[in-house]
Amino acid sequence: MSENGYTAAELDEAQDRFGVRFPPDLYDLLCKQRIADGYDWTGPADPIERALRWPLEGLLFDVEEAGLWWPEWGARPSNKEDRAALLSEVVNAAPKLIPLLAHRYLPEQPQEAGNPVFSVYQSDIIIYGADLEDWLRVESDQTYTARPQPSRRPIDFWSLAVERSGDPEFMSPL
Prior knowledge:
Radius of gyration: 17 Å
Number of strands: 4
Strand content: 5-15%
Mean pLDDT: 92
Order of helices and strands: HHHHEEEEHH
């Protein structure tokens, strides 16, 4: 962690700039200190904009390259553009993921402390911390093991993605 946090004005500007709302535990943390090697919410926009697009782009990759398709999405469209449009609609309806560090994300909703931290790499989506505090310990202490999964709060779409991560039932040969 960096010694210096962001000011409230900087965080409010970042939320407006990137169209996100930090849950209160993340807001409080970022006021106290910055995440070492994490995203700079006052720096150039490109890294954060790329990180905001990453979850959808990774899922789209697996839709096209690994045959990913969930039954909840309806019939798989026959063309790439329609598949991308449908998946974009589904992901955009899910709670937005706020980038923390690399491909680690905290869901924007619910707007309360205690949301789990997800690691998102294409459709390989796992819980990386039961909450923000747990994730910080996982990242900083190589001997620490994350809390048991039952302690996590379910998050629309993303928790289901965790359950289905790596399940061949949702991948089909192309």
